[in-house]
Amino acid sequence: MADDTDAEGGKTPVTTNADHEAGTQLEEGRPARVEYDIERVEAVYRKLDLRIIPAFWILYFLCSAIRSNIGLAQTMNSNVGHDLMTMLGLSSNDVSTALALFYVSYVIFDCPSNLVMSKLSPRVWMARIVFAVGVIGACFTAVRSAWSLKLLRFLLGMVIAGMWPGMSYYLTLFYPPSRTGKRIGMYFTASQISAAVVGLVSAGFQLMDGVGGLVGFQWMFLIYGLLAVLLGWTLLWWLPERPLPPGQRRERSSFMKWLPPTPEALTGEDALVHYEDLKRVYHSRPWTLKDLGYVLIDWRLWPLTLMYFGVVGVGIGTQLYGTVIIRGINPSFTGVQLSLLFAPIWIMDFFAILLVTPISDRFHRLRPLFFSCAVCIQIAGLLTVTFAPTSNPWARYGGLLMVGFGLGPTVPICWPADAAPGPHQYRRSNLVMIGILCVSIISSIVMFVALKIIGNKPSHKIGSSGSSTIDSMDGFQDGAARRELQQRGFGRMWWRKRT
C-alpha cells in the first residue's frame, strides 16, 4: 500500500501494482478492483458525512440529555422545595432504584434491539428509538410518585436499548473500518457537550418554575421530550437507507409503503465510487455459533471488559449525581449555582478527549499507559473530593473537575445512599469507585504484559472453512489495519504531515 493513512489522516489507501496483482490472485477468476483518485473518494465520503453525522450528533445529544437530566432534577429549585425528591417524596434508595432500573432494561433489550435493526430498515429503527425516547422523556413531566418514576426509567432503558451499538452498525453500512473511528468520535462528543449544555440550560428552566403550573424540572422533561419526538419523525425523511449496488432498485415492502421515502445517500458516479471502495474491504466471512464460542473464550476479551467497567461506572455516577455531590460540598449553593457548576466537569471531559485521544492514536502501542494515567487522574480527583479539608469547598470541587478530565464516559449510582452527614459524606462510595478504577488499571497492565508474552495473532477460526482464509483476506486489509503494524509517533502528527 502506498498510503495507508486511516480516517484520522483523511485518505483512502492507494493500491500499487504489486498489491493489485496480489488482490486479483486471491480468488481465481476474480476481476481486478477499480481504483479511483483519492480526492474523488474523499469527496464521496464528505457527502455522506454531511448527510449522516449532523443527524447522529443531534440525536445522540438529545437522547443523552433525556437519559441523564434526572440527575439535575434532584437539585433544581431545591431552595423552594420544587426539586424532584421533595415534590415526589423520594428517598435516596428510591432514586438509586429508579436509576438502576434503566440499566436493567437496557441490558435486557440491547441485544434484541440490535438483532431487529439488522433485519429491518436501520433508518426506521433509529428513528423509532429517538421517537420513543422522546415520548417517554416527555411522560416524566407527569410523574407523581416513586413507582411511576421507576416505571418510566425502566421503559426509557427499554426503548433506548441498542442506540449506541445501532449507530455504530449503521456507520458500517456506509464506511469502511478505517473511516468509522473518526465518525464515531465526531458524534461521541455530543455526550460531553450535552452534559455541559444541559447543566447550563437547566439554570434557565429553573427560572420558569411555576409558569403554566409546572415546576422547573417538569419544563425540562417536557421540552427535551418534545424535541426528541420531532427529531425522530424528521429522521424518517433524512437518514438514508442501507446502500445498494449501482443499478439495483430498492423494493419497498408493504410495511415500508406506509412510511415516507428517503432520497438515496449517493447517486450516479458517486454511488459507483462508494460501492467500489466498500468492496475493497468488505467480504463475506461466514461464521457459526462455534465461532461465537471462540470469541467468548478469547482471553483478550475479559481484561478489556474489566478496564471498561471501571471507567463506565465512574462516568455514569458523575453524570447522574454530580449536582448532588456539589451540594454536599457546599449546602449553601442554590439550584441555579449547582447547575452552572455542573457544566465545567463535562467541559473538562470534552477537552481531555480532544487533547489525549489523538496522541494515544499516534502511540497506539502505549495505549495502556495513556489509559492508566487517565484513570490515575480520576483516582486523584476522587481522593481530593473525599479528603480535602471541608473548610475549603473549592478544593473538593476541583477534585470533581479532575474526575471530569480523567474520565471518558461514566459512575456508579451508590453515592446518594452514602450521604452521611459531615466531612465523611460519600466517603465509602468514593473508596468503592477508587477500588474499581484500580481494577481497570490492573487489567490494562495484565493485557499489556500478556500481549507481549503470548502475542496478538489474528484468529484463524472464523472464515477458515472454504476458500476465505485469514491469509487470503490480508490482501483486502484496509489502511487502518496495515497501519497497526508499525509505531507512528510524533513523526506523523498533523504539524509534520507530508505534503
Description:
The protein has 499 residues and is mainly α. It has 2 domains: 1-20 and 34-246 and 266-283 and 470-499, Up-down Bundle (Growth Hormone, Chain: A), CATH 1.20.1250.20; 289-456, Up-down Bundle (Growth Hormone, Chain: A). Helices cover 65% and strands 0% of the residues. It contains 18 helices and no strands. α4 (92-119) runs parallel beside α7, α5 runs antiparallel to α6 and α7 (163-172) runs antiparallel to α8 (177-207). It is globular, with a radius of gyration of 25 Å. It starts with 16 loop residues before the first helix and ends in a 16-residue tail after the last helix.
Rg, alpha carbons = 25 Å
* Number of E-state strands: 0
Largest sheet: none
Write the element-wise H/E pattern from the N-terminal end onward.
HHHHHHHHHHHHHHHHHH
Query: How many helices?
Result: 18
Shape: globular
Low-confidence stretches: 1-31, 408-420, 459-499
- What is the helix content? 55-70%
Number of domains: 2
Named at the architecture level, the CATH assignment of the largest domain is Up-down Bundle
- Secondary-structure class: mainly alpha
- What value does the average pLDDT take? 75
CATH superfamily of the largest domain: MFS general substrate transporter like domains
Query: Span from first to last CA?
Result: 18 Å
Approximately what portion of the residues adopt beta-strand conformation? under 5%
Which topology of the largest domain does CATH recognise?
Growth Hormone, Chain: A
Q: Look at the structure and give the CATH class of the largest domain.
A: Mainly Alpha
